[in-house]
Amino acid sequence: MPSVSKDNSFADKKVLITGGGSGIGADLAQAFAEAGARVIIAGRTEAKLQQVAAAHSRIEYRIADVTDAASVEALFSDIGSLDIVIANAGAASSAPLRKTSLEDWQRMLDVNLTGVFLTLQGGLNKLTDGGRLLAVASTAGLKGYPYVAPYCAAKHGVIGLVRALALETAKQGITVNALCPGFTETPLLDESLANISAKTGLSNTEARAQLTATNPQGRLIQPSDVSAAALWLASPAAQAITGQAIAIAGGELS
Ligand code: NAP
Known about the structure:
Layout: E1 14-18, H1 23-34, E2 38-43, H2 46-54, E3 59-63, H3 69-77, E4 82-87, H4 102-126, E5 127-136, H5 149-169, E6 175-181, H6 187-200, H7 204-212, H8 223-234, E7 245-248
Parallel strand pairs: 1-2, 1-4, 2-3, 4-5, 5-6, 6-7
The structure holds NADP nicotinamide-adenine-dinucleotide phosphate.
């Protein structure tokens, strides 16, 4: 856990984090709760959300599907005002474009792009003055990777959305930014490794080494690396930072 998360500087803040039941979202929830914030996590699987909420008294959860407008509306309807909204929920699937069905394409856009639109729009309506909107995009929002065209397209879309919304909200003291992690050690990465192994015959260790090698620092990103950047962007110190897509990738995009 980053040390900046332990100073109680978010004591009077309320944070919503979608996809908070695992991986990056779970770490974000823990980091903001440790920094004193009241945290609401949302996702589709109650057992996972319950487990994360049980780890800290300031974390509570709601069931919501970010691809479903009615579900997102219900989520925001009983939540009151918010200081920080983090659109983190996402999913990745891979296939060559030739073998990508319209259904696969739509599924990736629904969760990774429309889900962010619905979350940020709902969040904007509940945001206090000087509020913060964050989207967990990806390095796949800033460069291409083979076999994940729908995911890349959706994440590029998130960055466009963030840049436009930052300009719309600039005069209100609201900042809007995208976090762009490289390959990060989470359940989503485990799924990608299993998929690579199944399709290429590489062992899990070999597949992991291949993904690790994309990071010039020679390490996978940790969820706590993402949380440290989110805590900074959500802090008063980052008031002048808006409309940015910040790579958290050990130099992969330098
Ligand atoms: P993860 O552990 O699989 O977390 C994704 C979370 O999103 C899950 O808790 C999932 O919970 C939730 N979710 C998925 N679909 C949802 C929906 N329709 N409505 C509500 N919640 C939904 O993976 P992660 O790596 O932490 O991913 C978090 C974000 O980081 C994603 O946006 C991902 O694209 C991004 N990212 C990940 C990496 C990486 O290498 N791991 C790199 C760059 C960016 P339920 O299924 O229970 O709803």
